[in-house]
């Protein structure tokens, strides 16, 4: 069983280059199939979620040509099926973006209904509400979401809650609807803006992405183009907290500092030094971190995808911190694992965690319950005294490209191993 094994205690020092944003790339690849010629996308992260979405696109007949692991050409003109079955959706929830893309382009899409997942129920009622408002008939049958429309017509749609997925999905379908769509109470995340930028480059007419209201004038055709994925805000934030928790000093390269402001501001409150440059940030950790309170919010608030990483870091800060999770109801599952490393965290009512800072964490054997929590457990292991193993690392592979190599490049003593025997060998090596 693949796992990470690490010996904590080395401060992360040096430079790390951030990959393209996974969550942006998922939307961009889906949008690319709407064009009537090939779309070239570069700066893709080489992570399993992206590979799985590319397989789903190939599964419906799309042509995917990889120039290298970070550059693909997607040609949707060869698509021959509008049915995306559960084998893809099970591996990667965001294949639901193919609903909006296929519905917009072909007026018909059938995609397996994404199930619940480790961090909460994650319904898609807002996506469906948007498709219906555009004139699609949406039925759920045999575990599939089936969308059909004779024609799609622009509409005024008000989302009941701020949803990244619904915003992107409805925006894609509306970009090929007849007439004007006004989409209110939308998500403002950088990846929403990135998908809107690609669609506009493909010939769509979308304004306002990045604000609360997106206005779309539908067009009949979208065409191919070249596009580069924005840097991954969450990967960058994870390394920034890596510097904080290990009391290191790192330069995080290939970032858009504006996208990191909520993360930067929390690190400063905790006593770290953060310096912003044009496309990089430097984070200097301090011997003592201060406690702070956190509430996760839609962008530009503090991201829920950074909640486990800040909680892990606050577990060794001075004083008591309160973390409020306001996006997903079940995102503290990793707390039991952190407790095995000596953290003192009490989860109240499922959405509030009270973290009483301890002097140090100690190495333990833990399991990643989901992607971001997995990364947080690795950060904890790098700060802990002794050896930590993190299992279920397939979750981490979904969203972090060459995570171990990047951490080792910063001086972390960490290895990916395939067997318990190899893990034991690593342990012996460091002990002797
Ligand atoms: C995206 C990100 C995920 C991140 C999340 C919040 C991708 C591929 N994933 O997920 O990493 O954690 O945004 O920033 O980009 N909701 C409904 N009905 C809906 C849609 C959403 O009730 O139809 C609720 C969800 O249960 C959740 C909240 O709205 O409580 C926000 O979810 P949403 O922004 O849609 O998250 P995702 O797009 O799934």
Notable traits:
four-stranded mixed β-sheet; 33% helix; UDP-n-acetylglucosamine1-carboxyvinyl-transferase, Chain; binds uridine-diphosphate-N-acetylglucosamine; alpha/beta; 432 residues
Query: Any ligands, ions or cofactors bound here, and which?
Result: uridine-diphosphate-N-acetylglucosamine
Number of helices: 15
Give the total of domains. Answer: 2
Uncertain runs are none
Strand content: 15-25%
State the shape: globular
| Arithmetic mean pLDDT | 95
Determine Rg (CA atoms, Å): 22 Å
- Give me the side-by-side strand order of the main sheet: 22-23-1-24
- Largest beta-sheet details: 4 strands, mixed
Percent helix: 25-40%
Q: Label the structural class.
A: alpha/beta
Give me the CATH superfamily of the largest domain. Enolpyruvate transferase domain
Strands, count = 24
CATH class of the largest domain: Alpha Beta
* Ends distance: 25 Å
CATH fold assignment of the largest domain: UDP-n-acetylglucosamine1-carboxyvinyl-transferase, Chain
CATH architecture grouping of the largest domain: Alpha-beta prism
């Amino acid at each position: 069983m693949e796992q990470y094994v690490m010996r904590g205690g080395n401060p992360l020092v040096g430079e790390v280059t951030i990959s393209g944003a996974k969550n942006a790339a998922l939307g961009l690849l889906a949008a690319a199939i709407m064009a009537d010629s090939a779309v070239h996308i570069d700066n893709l992260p080489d992570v399993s979620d992206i590979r799985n979405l590319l397989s789903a696109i190939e599964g419906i007949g799309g042509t995917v040509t990889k120039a290298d692991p970070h550059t693909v050409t997607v040609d949707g003109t060869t698509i021959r099926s509008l049915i995306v079955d559960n084998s893809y959706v099970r591996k990667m929830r965001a294949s639901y973006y193919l609903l909006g893309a296929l519905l917009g382009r072909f007026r018909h899409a059938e995609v397996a209904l994404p199930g619940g997942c480790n961090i909460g129920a994650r319904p898609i009622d807002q996506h469906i509400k948007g498709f219906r408002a555009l004139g699609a008939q949406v039925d759920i049958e045999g575990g599939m979401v089936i969308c059909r429309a004779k024609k799609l017509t622009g509409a005024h749609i008000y989302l009941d809650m701020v949803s990244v997925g619904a915003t992107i999905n409805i925006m894609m379908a509306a970009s090929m609807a007849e007439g004007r769509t006004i989409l209110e109470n939308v998500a403002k995340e950088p990846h929403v803006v990135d998908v809107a930028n690609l669609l506009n480059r493909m010939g769509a007419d979308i304004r306002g992405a990045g604000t609360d209201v997106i206005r779309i004038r539908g067009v009949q055709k979208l065409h191919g183009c070249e596009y580069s994925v924005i840097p991954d805000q969450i990967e960058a934030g994870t390394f920034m907290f890596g510097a904080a928790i290990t009391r290191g000093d790192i330069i995080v390269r290939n970032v858009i500092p504006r996208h990191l402001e909520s993360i930067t501001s929390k690190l400063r409150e905790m006593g770290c030094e953060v310096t912003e440059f044009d496309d990089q940030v430097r984070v200097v950790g301090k011997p003592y971190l201060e406690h702070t309170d956190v509430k996760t919010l839609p962008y530009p608030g503090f991201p829920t995808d950074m909640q486990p990483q800040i909680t892990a870091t606050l577990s060794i800060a001075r004083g008591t911190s309160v973390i409020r999770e306001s996006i997903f109801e079940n995102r503290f599952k990793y707390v039991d694992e952190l407790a095995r490393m000596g953290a003192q965290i009490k989860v109240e009512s499922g959405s509030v965690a009270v973290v009483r800072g301890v002097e140090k964490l100690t190495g333990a054997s833990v399991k990643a319950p989901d992607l971001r929590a997995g990364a947080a457990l690795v950060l904890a292991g790098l700060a802990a005294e002794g050896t930590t193993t993190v299992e279920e690392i397939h979750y981490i592979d979904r969203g972090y490209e060459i995570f171990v190599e990047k951490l080792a490049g910063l001086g972390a003593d960490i290895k990916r191993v395939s067997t318990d025997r190899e893990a034991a060998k690593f342990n012996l090596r460091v002990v002797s």
